[in-house]
Protein: Neutral trehalase
Organism: Thermus antranikianii
Amino acid sequence: MPLDRVKEAEGILRANDRGGYTVPAQGLYPFQWLWDSGFVALGWAVLDGDRAFAELETLFLGQWENGFLPHIVFHREDAGYFPGPEIWGSGRKPQTSGITQPPFLAPVLLHLARKFGEKGKAQARKLYPRLLALHRFLHLYRDPEGTGLVAVLHPWETGMDNSPAWDLPLKRVPRYPVPPEARRDTKHVPPEERPRLEDYERYLYLVSLFRSLNYDPASCYRESPFRVVDVGFNALLLFADEALVELAGLLGEDPSEPRGWWQRGLSALEALWDEEAGLYRSLDLFSGKRIPRATSAGFLPLLLPLPRSRAERLLTTFRSWAGEARYLFPSVLPSALYFEARRYWRGPVWAPVNWLLAWGLVRQGFHEEAARLKKDLLALVEGSGFREYYHPFTGEGLGGRGFSWTAALYLAWVQ
Ligand code: 2M8
């Protein structure tokens, strides 16, 4: 791996470091994002263990008293992002958003605790109760009927904002007028690489609704016109529940509560399996139906223990996708009508997805495909720099530049 790219990756993390937290990209995303911080901590772990733990500790400064962890913590003011803290009006200090993101944090803490020995365990002990409180919040308030799977109430909570999987459920959400000039993202990035205005109008309707409910979790769940069991979010939550069980073992804590969530969730996940399509699909809780869209999130259950036949079926689907793209892994099946090669979560290749899928493929023993995901991501970075996402046919870099999670995962992968 080219040494200058390693240096560049390190330079990006240092340039995006705001002292205890890392912004995803200068200008475009000037605050701390939940799941970005998880990936970024893996990169910091290569350079500086204390800084890796600090990333998570600073994120948890934004945790609410009920265990909820917001998807953005606004540690400092910056007018460069919309919607900013004044729109969210969470009334918290530090100011935060009022929705969450995939809780990809316990696997990171487990990795850090193992990597940094006694010191790592001492740090993990401080964060463990906070993580447990977050998971408890999610299993309680986002699964009030105890089905084993949790709901997301906003497309931003999935981390895959304008995924085609949300097109149909989002139709139930009214449009809230957003003057095009209010958006800041399209000033940093060409509009054809970002979500459409119509999507933003629905995103903002949900924000105004949750704000009017004072972010009360039970009311938000009840009132939200968008209520989806996202297969990606649930796979990552269950993977994180499993990591909590392992952390509990490492730290001498009682693992029974996370083990219960994990076991119940694993059997409930069966409802998301689509045998005919050979992949998992999200569930729209209003229609009660699985959402017929082929997205990369449907492969994330590879991170979980799966029966052999299921894992092999998923592998077959993976291979058929691989036959349709030059660079893996496209966020949407390229031959699908709703695929858009340059538009954000509707087609491009994303570093964290490659990294998570590779981890899952290794877990299932599919080393060759995991190696391909790594090879492709490294080739994209080496050819096009540390971008937010990449064109799956040409390898062109898209979206933000100097992107933290791409730099961090590159470091973690080449170390
Ligand atoms: C993107 O989402 C934010 C909203 O959270 C946005 O577009 O304004 C997504 O790619 C999300 O997954 C990511 O965490 C965030 C920061 O990188 O940007």
User: Anything to note?
Assistant: The longest strand covers residues 72-74. The chain has a mean pLDDT of 97.
